[in-house]
Every structure is written in structure tokens, then in C-alpha cells.
């Protein structure tokens, strides 16, 4: 039992070290906001807004609210992609604190202050995100951006997915500063694709895998590749 526990801890530490190196490589390539966690957030926004009509999901690319932290943070600390859903306009009087009345104002996290219709919409967004992740192919592996020559075109390459119902791949891109993907182009069932006239200096890119039913994986960020 002790040996098994020690092995499990060692495995977790190796995973954390591996993910740390992976995140460092992404950051060195200019993808500070293109980690697997950022890609998960973009995927959840797209799925939530597609299947929950009229509900807006804002992606805020920061660890958590100012000087606070949620239950997702231990997962982040161990190298796992994790996001936190929270109401954007919080009423601090009705959060976790002693239930009391001061100067005629009710404080505390009480049932009377729960907006159940809103909670139901958030649950639907979570369900949409989980369902689309389960149905979609895995994100492409070994995604790279070719940097052999100086040019204004952008060429991406990746390893082939193994899902039997794979239909192909989609290239997505956005301007720096945008929290979400702004453009997309289907590449077909290939493992290398060139975008003429789109400079890697001006845009950030990602590659998604698509199945025959149109389910798209989260995007994978390309790291520099030289032959």
C-alpha cells in the first residue's frame, strides 16, 4: 500500500513536470493565452452559446477573480485544464459570510437570493459543454507551425487523429487581443495545410479535429517547427 501510494505521487509529479514544460513551450511561442485551459474555455463558450439560446458566456483569460480562487485551481496547479463558471455581476452581500442583518441590510448566502432560472441556464451550458466534448474527436496532437523560411503565408502541420468517424480538420485563427476565435477554414482530411497571405506575425492559430457529424474538438495551439 505504501509503495502504491508513493508510485501514484511520483506519477502525479511527473505529469505536473511534463505539463509545466508543455505550458512553457506554448508561452515561448507566443501562446500565453492559448494553453489547454484557454482552449477549453473557448470551446465551452462556443458550445454554450450554440445550444442555450440567448445566453452569453464571456471568456475572461485570468486564473480567477481578483485575490480569490475557486475549486478549479488545484487542478490548474497540477497541470490539468480547468475553468470556473461564475456570475459576472456579484452581490458580495449575499456570498459566504455570517448570516446577519446590519443597518437594515440582509447579509449571507440565503436561498431567497438564488436566481433558479439563471442557475438552470448555467447547468444547460455545462451540459452542452460536456456533451460536445464527449462527442467530439480528441484535439489534434503534435500541432506545429512551419518556420523554415520567412514568408507571409502560414503553414500548419499535425499528427493524424485515430477516430474512425473523423471527417477532417479545421484551422481557426484570431487577432492578438481577441479572447475567441474570429475566423475558420476547413482543411479537409489532411495533416498539413497552408493559409496564403495570413502572416503568423499578425494572427494566432489553432487546429481542430472534426467528425462526420460536425462535432469539433477544442483547438490545439501550434508550436514552431523546422525541418
What report would you give on this structure?
By secondary structure, the chain is of the alpha+beta class. Helix 2 crosses helix 4. The strands form 3 sheets. Strands 7-4-3-9 form a 4-stranded mixed beta sheet, with no helix packed on it. A 3-stranded antiparallel beta sheet has the order 6-5-8, with no helix packed on it. Strands 1-2 form a two-stranded antiparallel ribbon. The longest helix has 27 residues. It is 30% helix and 21% strand.
The pLDDT mean sits at 88
Number of H/I helices: 4
Regions with little confidence, pLDDT below 50 for 5+ residues: 1-7
Q: What is the percent of helical residues?
A: 25-40%
Globally, the shape reads elongated
- Gyration radius, in Å: 21 Å
Distance from first to last alpha carbon: 47 Å
Main structural class: alpha+beta
What's the helix-strand series?
HHHEEHEEEEEEE
Strand order of the largest sheet: 7-4-3-9
The proportion of residues in beta strands is 15-25%
Kindly state the number of beta strands: 9
Largest sheet: 4 strands, mixed
Annotate the secondary structure layout.
Elements: H1 2-28, H2 36-51, H3 73-77, E1 100-102, E2 105-107, H4 116-135, E3 141-146, E4 154-159, E5 166-174, E6 183-188, E7 192-195, E8 204-211, E9 223-225
Parallel strand pairs: 3-9
Antiparallel strand pairs: 1-2, 3-4, 4-7, 5-6, 5-8
Helix pairs in contact: 2-4
Supply database-style keywords.
30% helix, four-stranded mixed sheet, alpha+beta, three-stranded antiparallel sheet, 227 residues, 4 helices
Amino acid at each position: 500500500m505504501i509503495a502504491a501510494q508513493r508510485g501514484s505521487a511520483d506519477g502525479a509529479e511527473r505529469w505536473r513536470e511534463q505539463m509545466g514544460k508543455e505550458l512553457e513551450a506554448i508561452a515561448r511561442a507566443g501562446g500565453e493565452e492559448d494553453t489547454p485551459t484557454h482552449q477549453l474555455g473557448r470551446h465551452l463558450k462556443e458550445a454554450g452559446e450554440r445550444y442555450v439560446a440567448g445566453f452569453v458566456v464571456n471568456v475572461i483569460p485570468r486564473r480567477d477573480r481578483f485575490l480569490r480562487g475557486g475549486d478549479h485551481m488545484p487542478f490548474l496547479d497540477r497541470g490539468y485544464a480547468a475553468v470556473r463558471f461564475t456570475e459576472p455581476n456579484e452581490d458580495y452581500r449575499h456570498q459566504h459570510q455570517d448570516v446577519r442583518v446590519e443597518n437594515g441590510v440582509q447579509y449571507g448566502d440565503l436561498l431567497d437570493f438564488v436566481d433558479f432560472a439563471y442557475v438552470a441556464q448555467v447547468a444547460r451550458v455545462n451540459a452542452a459543454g460536456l456533451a460536445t466534448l464527449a462527442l467530439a474527436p480528441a484535439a489534434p496532437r503534435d500541432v506545429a507551425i512551419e518556420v523554415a523560411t520567412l514568408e507571409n503565408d502560414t503553414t500548419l502541420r499535425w499528427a493524424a487523429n485515430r477516430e474512425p468517424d473523423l471527417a477532417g480538420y479545421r484551422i481557426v485563427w484570431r487577432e492578438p487581443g481577441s479572447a475567441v476565435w474570429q475566423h475558420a477554414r476547413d482543411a479537409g482530411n489532411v495533416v498539413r495545410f497552408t493559409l496564403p497571405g495570413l502572416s503568423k506575425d499578425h494572427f494566432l492559430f489553432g487546429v481542430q479535429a472534426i467528425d462526420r457529424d460536425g462535432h469539433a474538438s477544442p483547438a490545439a495551439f501550434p508550436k514552431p517547427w523546422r525541418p
